[in-house]
Structures are given as structure tokens and as C-alpha cells.
Amino acid sequence: MDIQDIYRRWVTTVRDKELVAELDAIAKDRVAIEDRFYRNLKFGTGGLRGVLGAGTNRMNCYMVAKASQGYANYLNKTLNQPSVAIAYDSRIHSDLFARTAAEVFAANGLRVYIYPRLMPTPALSFAVRDLKCSGGIVITASHNPAKYNGYKVYGSDGCQITTQTARAIQEEIDLIDPFDDVRQVNYSEAWKNGAISYIGEDTVDRYLQAVGAASVLPADVPRDVAIVYTPLNGTGVSCVPQCLREHGFTNITIPTEQETPDGRFPTCPYPNPEVKEAMEIGLHWAEQTGSDLLLATDPDCDRVGTAVKTGDDYTCISGNEMGVLLLDFICKMRQEQRTMPPNPVAVKTIVTTPMAAKIAEHYGVELQNVLTGFKFIGEQIGLMEQKGEAERYIFGFEESCGYLSGSYVRDKDAVNASLLICEMFAYYKYQGKSLADVLDELYRTYGFYESRLLSFTFEGVSGIAKMRSLMESLRKNQPKEIGGFPVERCIDYQSESMDGLPRFDMLRYLLPGDMEVTVRPSGTEPKLKVYLATVGRSSTEARKTADIVSRYFEKWAKS
Q1: Looking at residues 249-277, what average pLDDT do you find?
Q2: Rounded Cα distance, 323 and 349, in Å
Q3: Average pLDDT over every residue of 453-480
């Protein structure tokens, strides 16, 4: 069927009032119809994710049911009596999509466990392992704007599915007609007959105990720091304050505007703690209360952003900066407390600051690089566990504010990270230092690194074509220099298998003096992303170099 035929079929079949109204409203708009129906949503680095609305290229109950039927078929073909765990965040229709998925799984004979309330994404990873499920899903679009929702899929190890598994599930999904091939039962009936049941508070307690076991702060260090914590209207409010208070951090203020879960994110349209705009309300509350530290978790509470008081102002700490601070702090604490395991391992994504390698080398820690996406860090933890070496893992992080210091889950965990950040802050405050002071010490020791992420948005059908064209242009005409700096080596991960990594649509340019640039399409948004890492003899020199390289790619994106 062509796009118009698919549209007409939706018009005559869909009964959801909200979707019917949208389909009627675009009846004479060919561009709007094409954008909604020119493709099916595909799995990316974060699973299924898209704008809410009607159509095959949108997140709605029909596409959720289609994906769930495909996932159920995959599990039934590969396992006997499979089971799944489900969690969901505060986004628009997350609860509806979670119930829809549960109804499909139950209709296909799967045992379903679902959280009765909003819970962080890492709590789903924990539940899959704790309940020994065959897999799991989280309904979330992570840090995307309010118009998005998504569907993350997890394997039995509690890790987001890897590329090969995603491909196999996608093949099953592609065979499903959302109107004719989906098996679905009534939620209440499935509940009554035991096919669906709640994940109990005992699992939540075990999760928080596991988070607490990753604590590294000496008992004699005071914990009376003043903290502002904002969940950005998301799920973090269910676990972060409780975890912090249980570990002695009781002076916590939560902004009232962002405390209640709300998928519209009325005070923060782009709930991404990587960007300062998402921190504005929290910064205001920190100033008003004179707090020392600001923490902000994204809607599904797997990322955390940080700002610290420096004099009369507040400084936001980037994901890369916090990553190297935590890596250094964890290594220092473990060495001092003699809890460093033999042959320790840290893992980072390939686009995360190269400064981490120098810190790891200083402490005798093996540093592994993996592809973008925390699931690849989780995969490495799983491989160590299979060898009986899970204790070797001490820390994993990515530049987008994702961190994990324990092997109890297979995903980044903002509950764990929030605790570690508070402990690190309290430790250095006790010594009369700010985190800005400590970061400056690290720069003076290892070099002044500047990391940046440039994101270029290309919407719709034409946008996808433009992104492909830009990537092809780099491959066909490989630059000899970037901003005046010679390219010492170009690595095309689409054609080369490097360090055991799978093939991936990504280009990496190595420049002189530990500088590098990585270019890739986003797996979850219509964006091209450019990651820069520059280094200089001073922060000013590193920033100036980054400015030059940034201008080069800003011009390229407009070509």
C-alpha cells in the first residue's frame, strides 16, 4: 500500500478519539500525512522512540501493541514460558502504553510483572534480574521534549538489547499488522486470572539496598550539605530523596514546580539535565535557599545533571567533567579503603572525554571503550559477570550525564549517581574544596580538556535524506584537516571493526595532541551529532581550539 492507502486504512480503523481527531485534521495536508506514514518507527540506541500522535511514524497505542506483539513472538520462539517486567515514567500516555503492552504480553502467554507506580528506568533493569524475567520494557523517551515517548527493551540480563537482538525483534515486529495481527486481552481480566501482577515493594527495597552498597564515603565525613534536588516532573522523586536521606543527606529541598510527575514538563519543555535551561528552576531555588549543591534527574531518572555553588554564583558541571571527577573519586576512595579489586575495570563510551584514560592509567585501572549507548557498558559488565569477574567493574560513564558504579543493574542509574555525587561533594567540602577546585586540580595534572556536543536537527523525510547526504559527503571527501588541524587518522566504524566493536554509522577523526572528533546520526532523534574533544595548556587555549573546530562543523552542517 502507498502512504495514502495506509492513511485511509487508519482513518477507517482507528477508534481512539484523540487519534481520530488528528487524522481528520490532516485530511487535506499531504505533507503531514507523509510525515506520519512514510515509515515505521525503528529501534535505535535507545529502542523505539518518536513523537506522540497518529501514524506508523508516531508513538501511539497501536504502534506500542505492534512492538509488543513482535517482542512477544520473539520471546515465545526463543524461550519456554517467558516472563517480562514493565516500568513507565511520567510522560504523556506512559501509563496507557504500559497497560497496552501488558495486555498484549498476557494474551500471548507471557507472565507479566508491572510496577504499580512510576519508577526509574534502572529499577526496571533491577526488577528483570531480581524476578528472573526473560526481559522487560520501560515506557519512556528519556530526556527528549514533552512531545516524545518511547519503548525501551531489555534482555534477561537487565541490559538494553544489543544490536543483534534488536534486529531479530525488529524482524518480528515488521511482520505484524497493528490491526489484524495483535493478540490482546482486557487488563482487568488478565489481572484477575494472575497473568499480570504488581512488582512488590520488596523489590524496590532490594534495589535501594543495592544502590546503597555502592557507597564509598568514609563514615566520619559530615553529610550536612544543603542540597536542592529536582526530578524535573519525572520519576526520580520516587527514589532519589529516599536514598539520600537513608545515607545521611537530610537537608534536601525539592522545587514545588517540578516535584509532581507531569509529562507536559510545564516549567522545563526540554527536560535534559545536560543543558543549563533545564536547570533554571533548580538554580533559582538553590540561590533562594543558599544550597551548596543542585541535582537534576531526567524524567526516567537514569541521568543526573549537577551545579555547585562557587562563591556567590553556581557552576554547572558537564557530563564529561562529572565523569572524570567521579572516576577519580571512586578510585581514590577504593584505594584508601583498600577495596579496589584486582585488575579493576572502568568502561566509557567512545565519544566520552579521552581525559578518562589518563586518570585510569594513574590508578592502574583498565579502561574499556564501547559504542555510544549505555547498553554497551552494560554488555561489558555482563561479560565480566559470565567470567565470574563482576567485582572487577568499578565505574562506567558516558558524556550525556549517565553513570553507574555497581553491577546490580545493567543501565545508567541516576539514583546511584546522585548518592555518589553527594558523597563526593561532602568529602571535598570537609577538606575545604569545591568540586570546581578539584576539577581544576585534575586539569593541571592531566591537561586542560574541553568537550562539546554539537547537535544539528533535520526533521521529516527531507531531513533524513539530508543527514545521509552529509555523512556520505564526509566518507567520499575525507577531510585532510579540520579547522586547520591535520587529521592524523579517520576511522569509519561502518566499514571497519575496531577493538571488537560492531559496525556502526559513525566517523571518528584523530587530531594531534589527544584531540578527536566523532560524527554520528542520533539513534533516537532526527539529529546529527558531533562530539569534540580538545586539549590545551590552559582552559582558554582548549576552548579557543574547540571554537575553531565547532565553526568548521557548523559550516559543514549548512552545506
Answers
A1: 95
A2: 11
A3: 91
What residue spans in the chain does CATH classification 3.40.120.10 cover?
Answer: 39-206, 223-315, 318-412
φ, ψ (nearest 5 deg) of residue 238: -75, -20
**Distance from the first to the final alpha carbon of the chain:** 35
Strand-pair partners of 495: none
The pLDDT tens digits for 367-420 are 999 988 898 999 999 999 999 999 999 999 999 999 999 999 999 999 999 999
How confident is the model at residue 373, as a pLDDT? 86
Q: CA angle 297-299-300, nearest 5°? A: 95
Sign for the CA dihedral angle at 459, 56, 59, 267 comes to positive
CATH code assigned to 447-557: 3.30.310.50
CATH architecture of the domain with range 39-206: 3-Layer(aba) Sandwich (3.40)
522 among known catalytic residues: no
Residue 109: name the closest of 127, 130, 84 by CA: 84
Query: Which residue reads 503492552 in cell numbers?
Result: 101
Residue 80 has pLDDT above 70, yes or no: yes
Strand bridging mode 111-114 / 196-198 = parallel
What cell does 167 get? 534486529
Query: pTM value?
Result: 0.94
Question: Which residues contact residue 226 at a Cβ distance below 8 angstroms, ignoring those fewer than 6 apart?
Answer: 251, 253, 289, 290, 291, 292, 293
CATH class of the domain defined by 223-315: alpha beta
What's the pLDDT score for residue 499?
62
The string of DSSP letters for 320-348 reads HHHHHHHHHHHHHHHHHTT-PPSS-EEEE
Q: Which of 68, 94, 125, 142 is catalytic?
A: 142
- Would you place residue 311 in the very low, low, confident or very high pLDDT band (cuts 50, 70, 90)? confident
Instruction: Report whether pLDDT(502) > 90.
Output: no
Inform me whether the pLDDT recorded for 45 exceeds 60.
no
Please give the CATH topology (third level) of the domain spanning 318-412: Alpha-D-Glucose-1,6-Bisphosphate; Chain A, domain 3 (3.40.120)
Mean pLDDT of 418-430: 98
Nearest to 508 by CA among 486, 497, 496, 493: 493
